[in-house]
Amino acid sequence: MKTSMLEYCKQILQRVTFDKRLWTKEYRKSLQWLTVSESKQLREWVRSSKHQMSRL
Fold first, then answer.
1. pLDDT 10s digits, 26-54
2. pTM, whole model, 2 decimals?
3. Alpha-carbon distance 35 to 40, whole Å?
């Protein structure tokens, strides 16, 4: 099954929660790769997932 770029970016962000600087770098990079609507979805996902990524 093919993974969308949005889902791929989410996976990466979940994997780098141990380092705030790296997470920020990957987040910014993700926003550049994604379409406008996907970027909006990613931002919403980050806001809703913030409690799960409490290390940030």
1. 999 999 999 999 999 999 999 998 756 66
2. 0.83
3. 9
